[in-house]
Amino acid sequence: AAVEALVALWLTLRFALGYGMPWGQAAWYGLFHAISGFCNAGFSLWGDSLSQFVRDGWVLTPVMLAIIIGGLGFPVIHELWHYRGRREHHYSMHTVLTLWGSVVLLSLGTALILAAEWHNPKTLAPLDVPHRLLASLFTSVAARSVGFNAIDTGAMTDGSLVVHYLLMFVGAGSAGTGGGVKVTTFFILLVAVWSEIRGNADTEFRGRRITPAVVRQAVTILVLSAGMVLLGLLVVMPQTDERYAKVLFEVVSAAGNVGLSTGITASLPTTAQLMLLLLMFSGRVGVITLAVALAARTKRSRIRYPEEKPLVG
């Protein structure tokens, strides 16, 4: 509520003083977009989302802050707030993975989108350099888990769409307002791969050992989420003549609860739209329910079978 109130106040002042909106309308638009941003909903009161503000950092910046803070997850927010100013405190592995993972994804996404769209006359090319950077950063932030857009998503190059696949699939932080398989899930698996490459017996990060149960949970969530994307693609693809890149974008966006679209959803047949609806529901409720069930499960089998090592790779 505090974040939404501050962002709403910021946007209200900008809309009223910068765009001449009546104060009542400015307050309503400011509050709506502050809540939509913090909750990673991505709904906008403008038909073109936030494209008209692509050159206005005073609008895009507070919206980005709301998206990022809401997407970090409440455990991270609580830890950062509770231990603020205490240099001797060592943050939990979850907080470190979420923060550094978010920084890496946002920075990488911004750089790749900027490179892919630099000369695209339908997206970044008409903007000057500072506004290209702003638009690329906002696009990278929004691609993680929220449906706002400042440039035309349907006009992006295939390179940008590929970057979106990764950002939308990974999503935001655990126990936050965003979707996706979650930052910690993705980076725990990267840590596990790195530990295996180094020949470590355990999955290790910052002097701590990640239990095999957590790694298995991460693998399960990743595989099931990828399976849902594949199922959605197999159902939707035969029902449309749209390009594969755009269909995959719609499917991943639905499964990750992002809400971005290349503009083809309205033209899809009803069965394809129902599949996207199912992906949105399962992506938000199903994966989270599964994660909680796996984490809360206390009953373990007392039977352990003999080991055997099948060939891998």
In summary, what is this structure?
With 313 residues, this protein is an all-alpha fold. Helices cover 62% and strands 2% of the residues. Strand 1 and strand 2 (208-210) form a beta hairpin.
Provide key terms for this protein:
single chain; 313 residues; mainly alpha; two-stranded antiparallel ribbon; 11 helices; 2 strands
Structure explained in plain terms:
By secondary structure, this protein is mainly α. Helices cover about 60% and strands about 0% of the residues. Strand 1 and strand 2 form a beta hairpin. Strands 1-2 form a two-stranded antiparallel sheet. The mean pLDDT is about 90. The radius of gyration is 21 Å and the shape is globular. The protein has 11 helices and 2 strands.
Number of helices: 11
Order of helices and strands: HHHHHHHHEEHHH
Low-pLDDT regions: none
Q: Percent range for helical residues?
A: 55-70%
How far apart are the termini?
50 Å
Q: Report the mean per-residue pLDDT as an integer.
A: 91
Strand content: under 5%
- Give the overall shape: globular
Question: Major beta sheet, specifics?
Answer: 2 strands, antiparallel
Order of the strands making up the biggest sheet: 1-2
What's the count of strands?
2
Give the radius of gyration.
21 Å
| Content-based structural category | mainly alpha
